[in-house]
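Q: Given only this backbone (150 positions), what sequence would you predict?
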């Protein structure tokens, strides 16, 4: 458990490869409107990591989606790669990049109040609204109407 799980992932074309150690075996889903516009549906990602090894940087485009975050994709094949959270210099990688994450558990859903009605994920788990996400991850930050993820 403390060791984490070593994962190897790649984009569709293989131009970008990622080696990382997942701190746990959890996947989280973000239903916010930006994630859905970005990827066409909920963003399923692994826990934030700060020390991944990324090959193929030359193929990666980082779109600055807010003052505090970037969303990256492969310029060659369009695969959505990661959400980068600048205050922590942390990467939330798309779970789909990693075959080794297929046995992981969907452990948390965030921005549940922005989820459209046309889908639901079955099962019981923590489901946080935008306000609850703000309270959990950005305590004490005032005057921010939109926080993580963006
Ligand atoms: Zn690619
Ligand atoms: Zn989101």
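A: Predicted residues:
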């Amino acid at each position: 458990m403390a060791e984490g799980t070593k994962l190897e992932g790649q984009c569709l074309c293989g131009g970008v490869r990622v080696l990382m150690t997942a701190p746990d075996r959890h996947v989280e889903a973000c239903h916010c409107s930006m994630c859905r516009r970005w990827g066409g549906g909920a963003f399923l990602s692994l826990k934030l990591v700060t020390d991944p090894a990324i090959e193929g940087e030359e193929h990666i485009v980082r779109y600055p989606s807010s003052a505090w975050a970037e969303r990256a994709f492969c310029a060659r094949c369009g695969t959505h790669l990661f959400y980068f959270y600048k205050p922590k210099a942390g990467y939330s990688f798309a779970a789909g990049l990693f075959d080794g994450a297929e046995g992981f558990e969907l452990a948390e859903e965030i921005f549940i109040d922005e989820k459209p009605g046309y889908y639901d994920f079955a099962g019981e788990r923590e489901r946080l609204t935008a306000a609850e996400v703000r309270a959990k991850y950005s305590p004490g930050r005032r005057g921010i109407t939109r926080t993580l993820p963006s």
